[in-house]
């Protein structure tokens, strides 16, 4: 038993060394799921589930304590992959540790269950990559639902 405890302690002591090092980046394209609605409940007489409309907030958070970044574009696509809108009319600079957000209203169901954002950001030199995610929410009366959807890097800027 003592050997098992010692082995577990040694394993836990090496975890920080085994963890992935923080990888800096000069820019990325990030895919972020959005849920403008979700299906739920039972199927009705036509074989369709109930639809619950959600609002979504895209959050871009610069995690670098020393350097800023530039959000180059924020594009919103529907379930079929059709571009619905570009939220950035011009690039926006985020200072060190700064954040920005984009909001999709509850009544805006154009995106569908498979909506998404593509966020493109860049920096002058390698920095800590930002946290990019959506918060999808429904709050009415006694009922509430909220969950986050993390972004996934789909392209790394090469310079």
Helices, by number, come to 1
What would you say the CATH architecture is? Sandwich
Low-confidence stretches are 1-11, 16-20
What structural class results from the helix and strand content?
Answer: mainly beta
As for the CATH topology, it is Hypothetical Protein Tm1070, Chain: A
Largest sheet: 6 strands, antiparallel
Quickly count the domains. Answer: 1
Radius of gyration: 20 Å
Distance between the termini: 54 Å
The dominant shape is: elongated
CATH class value: Mainly Beta
Overall pLDDT: 89
Q: How do the helices and strands follow one another from N- to C-terminus?
A: HEEEEEEEEEEEE
**Strand content range:** over 45%
- Indicate the percent of residues in helices: 10-25%
**Beta strand count:** 12
What's this entry about, in short?
It is built from 1 helix and 12 strands, in the order αββββββββββββ.
What report would you give on this structure?
With 159 residues, the chain is mainly beta. It has a single domain, classed as Hypothetical Protein Tm1070, Chain: A, CATH 2.60.290. The protein is built from one helix and twelve strands; from the N terminus they run H-E-E-E-E-E-E-E-E-E-E-E-E. It has one helix spanning 2-18; strands at residues 25-33, 37-40, 50-53, 55-61, 69-77, 83-86, 92-94, 99-104, 116-127, 131-140, 143-150, 152-156. The strands form three sheets. Strands 1, 5, 6, 7, 9 and 12 form a six-stranded antiparallel β-sheet that branches. A hairpin with a 5-residue loop joins strand 5 (69-77) and strand 6 (83-86). Mean pLDDT is 89; it is low at 1-11 and 16-20.
